[in-house]
Design the sequence.
């Protein structure tokens, strides 16, 4: 595949952009593959990419029921951070964050990684204690964060009302190398690189059943016929419970809609990401000038990929207290995605009761930021049949053994 470069842009501009190749091929499915990955979201595509790049396995198909990146990967608010409390989480989230630093070069696709800094406001004494504790844990884990004063918050984000009215800003957990990236480009970049390695990305191909013999996976039934495989990776976020059901096991996962909205574009007003967990909302400004606003998850299980008006009202009402200037903004659009929540708010990267079938899910409201780290760890699990150091703590057995990785920092709104 031809490389993207400044020279290529100049060349194509001179010939009316007639020479661009398709970014990825659309092949017909083969009868068999070494590995089938279900789900062409970021995590599925990254799994395929690192199977090829790190383990030399390229006889891979990624099956997607819709279009690639059309699930949560293309619906999230793109916050990237690694300031988690538990060591196992910090390790995989920081691995992912560090891979974002060089992703545009690695994939030869501009994913617009913008390490502009992520700030999590402390608006109660409880949060102050919690974030100070996290900052200390991060120092031990080698993750660069600090607890900053209200004055420093105001300096970094002049549009914040630090004095209240209900919840004054008492400080913040600040990760200067956290930030955002262009979500579609992450999916497109991995897809293009996978296709370049000869892998098959098959869109509009829904998996409807999992074939097995003598306790081992042998393939999948799909809307485009049966496809055999030696190993199967299920990477379908909010649909994980359904796929696990097809493979014959149950998951400790709730699927719920999580919503977000964007405003009309305005002049540059805020150049960091701010999360306000107490009032329940977060905001960043996109390169186009829109304020990207995220709210909470629905309080009941559902599979609707839609926004709803009560969420907009709750989220905007909460944020207006901290950012009074947004009260006059017009809303441009809002939407929802189905996220997969575990009880301890930590992911599952695991072998399953079905031999040679592996699952990656449970990233809940915060899995965009881990796409590269998760793909790296999942590829190792699939290639070797056993988890490597990044995935070892995230097995399904932890729910049976009561060995939870309780990520209070990851809970609720904190994407
Ligand atoms: C509104 C919102 C805001 C968010 N904000 C953030 C954020 O700021 N930062 C952050 O880190 N995370 C955020 N997240 C979470 C993040 O988007 C997800 O954790 C992440 O994208 C999950 O990626 P994935 O590849 O696992 O899933 P997805 O991108 O959902 O991909 C799974 C794919 O599997 C496909 N699939 C399902 N069933 C089948 C089947 N039977 N056969 C074939 N294909 C199937 C789906 O069509 C889908 O394309 C947010 C999520 C939402 C919804």
Sequence:
């Amino acid at each position: 595949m031809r490389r993207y470069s400044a020279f290529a842009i100049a060349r194509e501009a001179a010939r009316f952009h007639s020479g661009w190749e398709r970014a990825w091929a659309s092949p017909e499915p083969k009868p068999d593959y070494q590995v089938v990955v279900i789900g062409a979201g970021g995590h599925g595509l990254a799994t395929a990419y690192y199977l090829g790049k790190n383990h030399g396995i390229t006889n891979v198909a990624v099956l997607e029921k819709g279009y690639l990146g059309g699930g949560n990967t293309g619906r999230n608010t793109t916050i990237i951070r690694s300031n988690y409390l538990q060591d196992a989480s910090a390790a995989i989230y920081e691995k992912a964050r560090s891979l974002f630093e060089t992703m545009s070069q690695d994939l030869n696709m501009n994913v617009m990684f913008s390490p502009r800094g992520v700030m999590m406001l402390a608006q109660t004494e409880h949060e102050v204690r919690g974030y100070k504790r996290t900052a200390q844990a991060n120092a031990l884990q080698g993750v660069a964060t600090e607890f900053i004063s209200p004055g420093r918050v105001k300096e970094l984000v002049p549009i914040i009302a630090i004095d209240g009215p209900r919840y004054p800003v008492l400080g913040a957990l600040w990760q200067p190398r956290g930030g955002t990236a262009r979500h579609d480009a992450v999916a497109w970049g991995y897809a293009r690189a996978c296709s370049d390695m000869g892998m098959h990305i098959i869109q509009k191909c829904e998996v409807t059943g999992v074939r097995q013999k003598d306790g081992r996976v042998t393939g999948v039934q799909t809307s485009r016929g049966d496809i055999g495989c030696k190993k199967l990776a299920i990477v379908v976020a909010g649909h994980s419970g359904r796929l696990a059901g097809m493979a014959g096991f149950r998951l400790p996962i709730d699927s719920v809609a999580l919503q977000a909205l964007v405003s009309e574009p305005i002049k540059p007003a805020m150049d960091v990401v701010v999360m306000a967990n107490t009032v329940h909302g977060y905001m960043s400004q996109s390169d186009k000038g829109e304020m990207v606003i995220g709210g909470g998850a629905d309080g009941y299980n559902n599979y609707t990929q839609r926004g709803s008006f009560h969420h907009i009202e709750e989220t905007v009402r909460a944020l207006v207290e901290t950012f009074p200037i947004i009260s006059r903004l017009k809303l441009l659009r809002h939407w929802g995605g189905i996220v997969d929540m575990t009880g301890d708010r930590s992911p599952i990267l695991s072998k399953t009761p079905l031999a040679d079938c592996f699952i990656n899910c449970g990233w809940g409201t915060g899995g965009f930021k881990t796409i590269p780290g998760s793909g790296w760890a999942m590829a190792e699990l699939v290639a070797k049949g056993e988890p490597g150091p990044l995935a070892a703590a995230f097995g399904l057995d932890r729910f049976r053994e009561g060995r939870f990785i309780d990520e209070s920092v990851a809970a609720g709104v904190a994407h």
The mean pLDDT is 95. The CA atoms of residues 18 and 172 lie 50 Å apart. Residues 125-141 form the longest helix (17 residues).
